[in-house]
Amino acid sequence: MALTDAQRAQLGALADQLIPAGGGMPSASEAGVAGRYLDEVLTSLPDLKAPLETALAAVDGLEPEAALAVLRDDPAAWGVLTAVVPAGYFMNPAIREAIGYPGLERRPIDATAAPDYLADGLLDSVVARGPVYRPTPTD
Amino acid sequence: MEHDVLIVGAGPSGAITAKRLAEEGLRVLVLEQGDWPDYSKATVHREDFPLTAGRDWGWDPNLRQAPGDYPIDDADSDITALMWNGVGGGTVVYAAQWQRNMPSDFRVKTLDGIADDWPLTYEDLEPYYVRVERDFGISGLANDTAFPPGEGPPLPPVPLGPAGRRVAKAHNDLGWHWWPAPNAIATREYGRLHACQQVGTCLQACAYGAKGTADLTHWPRALELGVELRTRARVSELIVRPDGLVAGARYVDADGNEHEARAGVTVLAANGVGTPRLLLLSGDSPDGLANSSGMVGKRLMMHPFGTVVGVFDEDFRAWQGPWGQFIHSLEFYETDESRGFVRGAKWGLQPTGGPFSMTSAYPWGAENEIWGPGFQDAVRGRLGHSTMWGIIAEDLPEESNRVVLDRVNRDADGVPGAKIEYRLSENSRRLVEFHQARAKESLLAAGARDVVVAPFIRSTGWHLLGTTVMGTDPATSVVDAQGRCHDVPNLFVFDGSVWPTSAGMNPTATIAALALRFAEQLIESRREQKVAA
Ligand SMILES: Cc1cc2nc3c(=O)[nH]c(=O)nc-3n(C[C@H](O)[C@H](O)[C@H](O)COP(=O)(O)OP(=O)(O)OC[C@H]3O[C@@H](n4cnc5c(N)ncnc54)[C@H](O)[C@@H]3O)c2cc1C
Ligand code: SF4
């Protein structure tokens, strides 16, 4: 089921080309993109495994930079790589925290509050300008 | 005969028709090839939702390949056709941007000298807009200056949000139109709808039951009224009698068994691809059924689409919000020939999504990709700090843009699929370019530090219109102003296939209002209506 250690090492090296350490944050492989979070991504979307393995096999033995150049020209391979890598990276709670992303939250609308644009006159100039449509012609 | 009316398709047009006819005591049967939506898959709070949403709530039937889908060959089309086949139809995944057409949309020939007028006016449709807006729980603010004054939707609009406010101010400075946007999003508890939580996943189904979708707003009541809805019932052809009337339809169930459903009157509500497909599949003539005009399948319109994103210093936390739209602008909607094209487009201001979306080639553009050194700062710069105009452009009807049968690729039951042939016209290209340039000005005026005009992508065919054109002349149109086929007096089309021109608006408000009007007309004329006894 899971990828081999060699495949993971290969993926980690490619992933670090896409997401090197920076901005006070770890690289993709340091964040677990080829480890724990790869497993989570593939559990969520098992259909990604086969195309990922195909992509890795296609560039086996190439240096990461050269490998990336090859994959870039192959839309299917590039698609799977640029799905798996950021998906795994942003699944890591430490990464989400570092970019200030709490995940999707419920933000109920306060329907009782008076709309700000009525209170502060934001719409006034639009209304003052009058109609901006062409009416139905009468023949 | 068990049923008075057979309806093909359980999307909004089919649902509205079924419910209204059942209210009058008509016995209605609806055949729908897909299933009910499974909202347990709307797992918005899971970290993997950006991954699984594409699989579970995808829009492209060719990729999704769900049991209710049929193949659509789009190799010869600049745009791919998108839809959701099941109870609720496209509303299950729609962005809930709820736009009426403007008066000029019904009078394109008279006003702009091109294409055709509709055999009805804005004023004819206005009472039906009001009614469907109540039925779908629409939120918005009445007396938008881009429309004739009148009754607005029942619920207050969604909040402008910090992004909406900022861009609204810029439009005030520019002297450009904007208005709090109309959405099929309940801003408080309303009927069977719950209040929106602004989670921003409208395009991947609403986990909170807050979006006005036909499976929630219409189907429960229609079923209570006695409508019979058969899901996983794929119609393969209409049954044509020797006297030329339609007696109902043949369909295949989930186990592959064939059945016949008979009714006095048949209504197609299968969308701009499904409806012409079914007509082309039916009858003895190689041209299909109801096609003496030769127009069945022709004049396909799908709305070229543009996106312009602005990145700001201000943190809008706009990875979510109603999606939907915060505000809309119709400043450049009406024709101005000095621009080098006719007709126009509607703009809707939207959130841009979570971190995963910040890395994608759309809308950010391959040339702006952020892979490599600086990745994290680039994500932080975009995430929550960006907002985008979605631009819905009007495309003009052209006979060479069309739906035909695909006898090579067939659905799971062996029924031929559809093939679409569609090319962007010069008018469309100029129109989109002009609007992108103005939208860029809008965001720069709002203080964007960076503006990206998204690359053109093919997968934007959310709106499927025009393929059984409505008109008064049987030589040039397929259905009359009642939606009745000129050639077959007990066969009707009540979906967006009947549109003579496409308008530059999200179409569901007008599809819905028109379906309700058609249903009322059918009820009114029922005594004179020819039926297959
Ligand atoms: C991703 C997405 C986003 C959208 N966003 C917006 C938006 O923001 N605003 C807006 O106004 N519109 C939007 N739309 C468009 C909107 O969904 C459609 O306009 C609307 O659903 C059309 O309604 P309809 O009933 O005519 O057709 P549909 O909703 O397409 O329903 C047709 C039904 O017929 C069924 N059917 C077809 N053929 C057969 C057959 N042979 N046998 C049995 N059943 C059949 C289909 O399975 C389907 O359920 C969006 C669409 C998509 C896909
Ligand atoms: S933004 Fe509102 S309507 Fe849209 S999916 Fe979220 S809760 Fe539902």
TrEMBL record, chain A:
Domain of life, source organism: Bacteria
Protein name per UniProt: Gluconate 2-dehydrogenase subunit 3 family protein
Organism: Solirubrobacter phytolaccae
TrEMBL record, chain B:
Keywords tagged on the record: FAD, Flavoprotein, Oxidoreductase
Residue ranges annotated for the Glucose-methanol-choline oxidoreductase C-terminal domain, each copy included: 397-515
Protein family (similarity comment): Belongs to the GMC oxidoreductase family.
Top-level taxonomic group: Bacteria
Name of the protein in question: GMC family oxidoreductase
InterPro entries in the cross-refs: FAD/NAD-bd_sf, GMC_OxRdtase_N, GMC_OxRtase_C
Originating species: Solirubrobacter phytolaccae
One protein family per Pfam: GMC_oxred_N
GO terms assigned for molecular function: flavin adenine dinucleotide binding; oxidoreductase activity, acting on CH-OH group of donors
UniProt domain Glucose-methanol-choline oxidoreductase N-terminal: residue ranges: 16-304
